[in-house]
Amino acid sequence: MPAMRRHYALNGLRLLHSTARPGAAAKPAPGGEHAGIRAATLQTTLTDSPKPIVPKEKLVFGHTFSDHMLAIEWTAGGGWGRPQIKPYGPLQLDPSCSVFHYAFECFEGLKAYRDAQGKLRLFRPDRNMARLNNSAARLHLPQVDGAEVIECIKELLRVDKRWVPEGQGYSLYLRPTLISTENTLGVHRANSAMLYVITSPCGPYFPTGFKAVSLYCDETNVRAWPGGVGNRKLGANYAPSIGPQAEAESKGYQQVLWTIGEDHELMEVGTMNLFVLWRNDAGELELVTPPLDGTILPGVTRESILELARGWGEFAVSERKVSMKQVAKASNEGRLLEVFGAGTACVVTPVHRIHFQGRDYDIPLDPAHPESQAGPIAARIYKTLLAIQYGDTPSKWSVVVD
């Protein structure tokens, strides 16, 4: 950490403050040309106007932001500059920046949790950093040293610790974002960029909480395609989904079920990975999810669910192509047991109904869980992941901040 800093109390917290003056420009980190990110050079400038904490019961996902943010600038000639924690506020960017014109942007989503002892925890942040680099590579944006960025994020969490709400189901959502800041028009590799991280206290992703949702199978629009960027977390993947999502909602469904091809092969559900539990054609109990064929986002929660289920060894676990026609057939034959989505924001979201080719297919729900309407496997996975994320169950996936 920086050698020159001082401590002082703010609302009962022990915060860090560097000697940098507010608004000071980021200086290049030591190391010369093409320098990498170095958490040891981090500078922290605290806000002099801390915001009041919003009661957790009133939190709406993505609407409230903490006092500070992390920002690191990059240039092709000098590499990464000095990381800075500074008051949350607007970015000053030229109107010609290529991020505005050509979608030179990728991002990540992860959460910080407060355990029963008050310690802060991150869930598999190394996987988010690896995926960020994978997304950046497709855009020819600079790579980051994931371990160094995680150390910077830990310091941001220490500074804004009071913003991490208590209680299971509540967390601090982190949004690392990498953008091109080059201020020239023209589609070419960026010569300058910025990585920044903002944080947002949140409760359940869906206002209904851990409840089953309905899906509308979109038979016209396609989320991703072979050779495209469906396996990267780019902003360009999300904006085009707004129209189909609005259409699904107008028909009385909460999320879009994305498929591809004449047989409507399953892809994703809304912004989540998709899982199906059924008895397959061979009569075998199987949990199946679409494969990482370049069209599917490699979700951290998806990966974790697969590892958990395979570790249980109670049913087959597969990554393979499955069509909506096969799901409909299984439903007609009484072999369809559960369908659920999975992602960082929602963790697990059970599904109770899918509309496909003019008909609704009802998904069986476990009467033992009337409060959530979840099937037994979805409920078990949800509870298991929460126990790890909040530190109730020891796991290498849970990284303690302090």
TrEMBL record:
<dbReference type="InterPro" id="IPR043131">
    <property type="entry name" value="BCAT-like_N"/>
</dbReference>
<keyword id="KW-0028">Amino-acid biosynthesis</keyword>
<protein>
    <recommendedName>
        <fullName>Branched-chain-amino-acid aminotransferase</fullName>
        <ecNumber>2.6.1.42</ecNumber>
    </recommendedName>
</protein>
<dbReference type="InterPro" id="IPR043132">
    <property type="entry name" value="BCAT-like_C"/>
</dbReference>
<keyword id="KW-0663">Pyridoxal phosphate</keyword>
<comment type="similarity">
    <text>Belongs to the class-IV pyridoxal-phosphate-dependent aminotransferase family.</text>
</comment>
<dbReference type="GO" id="GO:0009099">
    <property type="term" value="P:L-valine biosynthetic process"/>
</dbReference>
<feature type="modified residue" description="N6-(pyridoxal phosphate)lysine">
    <location>
        <position position="233"/>
    </location>
</feature>
<dbReference type="GO" id="GO:0005739">
    <property type="term" value="C:mitochondrion"/>
</dbReference>
<dbReference type="InterPro" id="IPR033939">
    <property type="entry name" value="BCAT_family"/>
</dbReference>
<keyword id="KW-0808">Transferase</keyword>
<dbReference type="InterPro" id="IPR005786">
    <property type="entry name" value="B_amino_transII"/>
</dbReference>
<keyword id="KW-0100">Branched-chain amino acid biosynthesis</keyword>
<keyword id="KW-0032">Aminotransferase</keyword>
<dbReference type="GO" id="GO:0009098">
    <property type="term" value="P:L-leucine biosynthetic process"/>
</dbReference>
<dbReference type="InterPro" id="IPR036038">
    <property type="entry name" value="Aminotransferase-like"/>
</dbReference>
<dbReference type="InterPro" id="IPR018300">
    <property type="entry name" value="Aminotrans_IV_CS"/>
</dbReference>
<dbReference type="InterPro" id="IPR001544">
    <property type="entry name" value="Aminotrans_IV"/>
</dbReference>
<dbReference type="Pfam" id="PF01063">
    <property type="entry name" value="Aminotran_4"/>
</dbReference>
<dbReference type="GO" id="GO:0004084">
    <property type="term" value="F:branched-chain-amino-acid transaminase activity"/>
</dbReference>
